[in-house]
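tool_log.txt
---
The assistant was asked to compare two proteins side by side. It first ran the structure predictor on the initial sequence, then on the second. Raw inputs and outputs are pasted verbatim so the downstream comparison step can read them without reformatting.
(1)
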Amino acid sequence: MTKATLSQVRDWLRKVPVLYAIAMFALTRKYWIGATFGKRVGLAVKAYRRCRDGMPDVVAIQPDCVCPLRCEFCQIHELKLWEHRRRRVMPLADFASIIDDIAPYTTDIQFSGGEPFIHPDITRMFAHCRARGIYTLAATNAVLLNDERIAQIIANPPDAMLMSYEALDARLYEEIRKKGNYDVLVRNIRALIEAKRKSGSHLPLITLQMVLNKRNRHQVADYWQQVADMGADIASVKALGVWPEGNAVHRQKMLEDYVIPMSEDPISRHDIIDGRLTYQRREGQCPSTRTVSIGSGGEVMACWYLVVAGGGLGYVPDEPFARIWNSAKYRRLRERMLDGWAFEECSRCIGVGATGQSKRVKREEWVVEAADKKPDAGAGDVDNK
């Protein structure tokens, strides 16, 4: 089933909130892992409230807006993300206040950044979400996962962690993930997997992700087995998405050095026609109308990818989130996002329709799952992490 078809099914179920909640309880596999029956019931109740009141499906939160790496396909340094945030690091008290406000109808929190594990209280944030019955996913480049941090993760884990694993050798990894150290990366991943094994916990579910591009495509065949040998739960390959707010120089570099055209690989998000990038995006299919992003300074944003253009909707915890979400300004913006392009940058967004492939360890075999695995755009940069 394609992402577009799944979206249509969800839209139909939303017309009957009770059916939507039952489907969430019965069919959403990620909620089963390490969850008690009571937690799953709680998530279904939240899903009912969310559907009934028209609240967002996913809340992406930036605990901080800085990152130690300078990845070639990322633009947060060039866009100076921190200049568009009131604070570089979100105070724990503000985070707790935001979560307490949205907890009655929130099922999913995605932690992105920047790099979430820069935040000194990130595992306390996971714990607070867990106490409020919220599923959590943390996207990380994994370079800061030293022994102390790993011990904190095992003590207070997110439900899932998505870790970047871009290449199978140091030279290529460090060319793509500038300022990264491949040996440190591998050491950190192995240490976390081993610590989880020793703890006997199901959590966090560990996914290693490769962002597919021209430079690493020759390693994909060996990638699946290497991730299996490392002991991760899931291996994932995502096609590169070019940042909508990136400038012309960035887009040209992506075109020349990174983007694989759809004519060469069906999971690509872009094609190259007459030497120019094209974006596989359908009007009326903006997934960010059902998600929201909250910056490290409490900024409520329509889309994570619109660092500059997408803000200005309000600040939490300064005022209740529901008041911002239901404001006339935000409602009109969501209507524009569905009717066409709300911002000029929207014309350069891949939206829905992007594809990928993942494999899960099951009965000591690797099983290829559905190809359409891209997380909702605007719901955090779990994409090019």
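(2)
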Amino acid sequence: MGTGKFIAGKKVIIGRGIRRPKPVPIRRPKPNMANPAAVFAQQQGLKSDIVTAPDGSQSGWITLPSGQRVNQWVYFRENYVRPRPKPRPKPRPKPRPRPRPRPKPRPKPKPRPKPRPRPRPRPKPRPKPKPRPRPRPRPKPRPKPKPKPKPRPRPRPKPRPKPRPRPRPRPKPRPRPRPRIIGLANPSAVFAKEQGLKYTIINTPNGQRGVVTLKNGRQMDAWEYYRKFKKQVFRKKKRIKQIKQKKDIKRKVRRINNNRNFPLAFRTP
């Protein structure tokens, strides 16, 4: 018998003719996380660079469109808005277990009736002896058949011409991948362009702000204009859609009335 050792909580017997298990290398995951401040600046369309101080420390800086340089993390803490977490669904209460029905008492088995005695079989009568058959006459010998003539050899078929090889179709060129779009368009700017208004960005001491120029020349904050007039425009479009649907229904009814006396919906059976 060989010696025993414990490896990973299991006893392994090592002796003659048994190899020791090889150690399994542990694969550790490599860190693969980008700088959140640098990613946020890239999403906003700003350029960031790393500056090395005289003491050897490094920090990231952003160049704003106005030419001002700001630290990455300062710009990230001031402008990043954390998305709201989705509300968790409430756990449903567990249903109460139904009481098991009581088993019905089994009926008592009925007593089996006694078997009746079988009647004795009667002896069968002996069959009468059959008469002997008469001998059959011998059949006449059949005449020998005439030999069949040999068939003529068939002519060999001509070899078919080989089909011409079809030309291989040329492979279609692969479509070029579309460039990925990062981010989402500003809803207030899109709404202003749909209404035919001019949207401009103004630099203020607190940062950049979108402004909408109305038809009378008055300027208004883009988000304020969006919140004020978005519902009105949506209701107006919805009302126009409902009116169009009603007009289409009336046209269909008139078309049916021209062909028949009454439409199918109002005909009596």
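---
observation on (2): The longest strand covers residues 198-204. Confidence is low (pLDDT under 50) at residues 262-269.
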